[in-house]
Amino acid sequence: MANTAQARKRARQSVARNKHNSSLRSLLRTSVKRVRQAIAAGDQAAANEVFAKATSVIDRVADKKIIHKNKAARHKSRLSAAIRAISA
Asked: Where is this chain compositionally biased, Basic residues type (predicted)?
C-alpha cells in the first residue's frame, strides 16, 4: 500500500491509465479481428474498407505508445498482404 500522498496519487493515476490503455488495446484487437473476418469471407472491397479504418486505429495506438511502432507496422503489413492474396 502506498504510504505517501505522492505514491497514493501515482497509484490512482496508474489505475486510470491502465483502464484507458486497456480500452484502446481492445479497440485495436477488435479492428484487426474485423479485417480478418472480411478476409476470411473473401470480400476484397469490404476488407479494404475495414482495413482503412483499422490502419487509423493501429497508428493511433502506436502513437500513444501502447504498442510499439514496429508491431503496428507488422500488423498493417500482414493484413495488407492477406488482402492482396484474396485476388490472387
From this structure: 7-22
**Domain 5-87, CATH class in plain words:** mainly alpha
Cα 22 to Cα 6: distance, rounded to the nearest angstrom:
24
Q: What is the pLDDT of residues 14-27, one digit of tens each?
A: 999 999 999 999 99
CA angle 26, 29, 31 (to 5 degrees): 110
Following DSSP, what letter does each residue of 3-52 receive, concatenated?
Answer: -SHHHHHHHHHHHHHHHHHHHHHHHHHHHHHHHHHHHHHT-HHHHHHHHH
29: cell is 484487437
Nearest CA to 82 out of 42, 53, 29 is that of 42
Please report the pLDDT score of residue 87 as a whole number.
78
